[in-house]
Amino acid sequence: MSHAPTSNGHFSVSQKFFFDAAHTLQRDIEREGSLRVHGHTYYAEVTVSGARDPATGMVVDLGLVRQHIEQLRPQLDHRMLDDVPGLGPATLENLCAFIWQALLPHFEGLSQVRVWRDSVGDGCTLGRA
Question: Shortest CA distance to 115 belongs to which of 65, 46, 43, 56?
Fold first, then answer.
């Protein structure tokens, strides 16, 4: 007797990771502190959505998601974000877009990337419109 749910609805699975990085930022508000090199612990969460594969019961194998995150993470972790090729200014928005672009070729169902900094309580979410 199977106890598996019979729903073939839409599922979303997520994987969270973090990286520590430094940056500067050109801006008018909080200008002095933003222009100095400073760092944060950034948290990120990627979400893949879709239907379950009938054979595996999964939308995506999270082990595969973790593998691709571990290929991406060294580009950001313990880096000067100002120097990361393709990132642009080190904003939360650009970090979301950078992670999205890195993972999208591997996950057709990529539906959301969220980046936040607990230390200052801010965050950004990029999702499909």
Answer: 43
CB distance 40 to 20 below 8 Å: yes
Q: Give Cβ neighbours of residue 94 (< 8 Å, ≥ 6 apart).
A: 87, 88
| Gap between the Cα atoms of 22 and 101, Å rounded | 21
41 DSSP β-pair partners: 20
Contact assessment for residue 40 and residue 17, using Cβ atoms and an 8 Å cutoff? no
d(CA 128, CA 87): 20
Mean pLDDT per 10-residue segment, the chain (129 residues): 62 98 80 74 98 96 98 98 96 97 97 96 93
Q: Rounded to two decimals, what is the model's pTM?
A: 0.89
**How many residues are listed for the chain in this entry?**
129
Measured CA to CA in angstroms, residue 64 lies from 18, 51, 57, 67 at distances of 17, 17, 15, 5
